[in-house]
Design brief:
Largest sheet: 10 strands, mixed
Structural class: alpha+beta
Shape: globular
Strand content: 25-35%
Number of domains: 2
CATH superfamily of the largest domain: Thiolase/Chalcone synthase
Low-confidence stretches: none
Number of helices: 13
Helix content: 25-40%
CATH class of the largest domain: Alpha Beta
Number of strands: 18
Length: 392
């Protein structure tokens, strides 16, 4: 049985911060961001937009009424969870009006969680072939103003509908994973922002790639020549470029090396304009590749490298299905250009705002008219979400 991604969607916030503006305000050489990180813009989420609203919006963009009747599992991967007990998947299940007899839960392991969700979803469909599983990777990367990680923030969500006989990508049974107990990036419960050992994290990312790729090749009998493209986790695109250079097989014909490099460039276009979205970053790269590469064709094999600090890494592959391009958008870059630009001062106020609760745990919000879903209030410490009725 063939199992894979039947539909894929994306959502981000309506606000954008230009990194050239941030560089000017912070007294940083703009090239340090545009060339040093390969980033151009960051999506900035207001208080009324969180990983629940973003995840719901990403899914809402691809699901039909029939899909909502057939989905029997909702998995959300995030490291930006909004409750220590109730899973964000339960909120999203309700917002999307998915049939009630579905299992809904949340997965966490830094940026790796969505890959684990795909693995679990695939096993479920193998046992129940008529199932459809909604996998969401939704996060807001927030490091704080004036921090080293500030230029790599971002916000967004990827939604993937998995089924048998998929219309975009078919997974191969070739996953190889590796776990290391390291402290390269972590966020204790009492901290609103993470702690990062940046140089060490870069080393862990690249070494996990190198060693997992070596083990993958040994177990599967495959090498870089067997792939049309290689997608990477994208905390920032320059790190992934280092990864591609690290595994590049210089014995390949120059034409194939050029194809891998061109497809890499296609895979980072969206991330360059959105920033880091943690669990969704690898799959935003995949979406960008599929929607922007002019070199892919049905039957091509794509490798994917997933990495979550702490750390878990996994390499797996999928094959493009005939007609995959019919399930994709051709206007996403233009849509990203419609976001409202923010000054640095407005970004600082918007992105780092916190809910001001009264003594009973209440707060109400406004200014969410252009969102698809919104956090509209907190009532006695309960978060209340609604689908936004757009004015005609």
């Amino acid at each position: 049985m063939t199992i894979g991604i039947d539909k894929i969607g994306f959502a981000t916030s309506n606000y954008v911060l230009k990194l050239k503006d941030l560089a000017e305000e912070r007294g940083i050489d703009p090239d340090k961001l545009s060339k040093g990180l390969l980033l151009k813009e960051l999506s900035i989420a207001p208080l009324t937009e969180d990983m629940v609203t973003l995840g719901a919006a990403a899914a809402d963009s691809i699901l039909t009424a029939e899909d909502r009747k057939k989905i029997d599992m909702v998995i959300v991967a995030t490291e930006s969870g909004i409750d220590q007990s109730k899973a964000s998947a339960v909120f999203i299940h309700g917002l999307l009006d998915i049939q009630p007899f579905a299992r809904s839960f949340e997965i966490k392991e830094a940026c790796y969680g969505a890959t684990a969700a795909l693995d679990y979803a695939k096993l479920h469909i193998e046992k129940y072939p008529d199932s459809k599983v909604l996998v969401l990777a939704s996060d807001i990367a927030k490091y704080g103003a004036h921090t080293p990680g500030e230029p790599t923030q971002g916000a967004g969500a990827i939604a993937m509908l998995l089924s048998r006989n998929p219309r975009i990508l078919a997974f191969n049974d070739d996953n190889v994973a590796q776990t290391r107990d390291v402290m390269d990036f972590w966020r204790p419960n009492y901290s609103a922002t993470p702690y990062v050992n940046g140089i060490y994290s870069t080393q862990q990312y690249l070494d996990s790639l190198k060693t997992t790729w070596a083990e993958y090749q040994k177990r599967q009998g495959l090498s870089l020549k067997d792939f049309a493209a290689f997608c990477f986790h994208l905390p920032y695109p320059k790190l992934a470029l280092k990864g591609l250079n690290k595994i590049m097989d210089k014995s390949l014909p120059q034409a194939q090396q050029d194809q891998l490099k061109d497809n890499f460039e296609a895979s980072i276009l969206y991330s360059q304009k959105v920033g880091n979205i943690y669990t969704g970053s690898l799959f935003l790269g995949l979406l960008s590749l599929l929607e922007n590469s002019d070199q892919l064709k049905a039957g091509d094999k794509i490798a994917l490298f997933s990495y979550g600090s702490g750390a878990v890494a996994e390499i797996f592959s999928a094959d493009l299905v005939p007609g995959y391009e019919e399930q994709l958008s051709q206007t996403r870059l233009e849509e990203l250009n419609l976001r409202q630009p923010l000054s640095v001062a407005d970004y600082e106020q918007l992105f780092f705002a916190e809910a001001q609760l009264d003594e009973a745990g209440n707060a109400s919000f406004s200014g969410y008219e252009n969102q698809t879903f919104a956090l509209t209030e907190i009532a006695e410490h309960q978060r209340k979400y609604s689908k936004v009725e757009k004015s005609s």
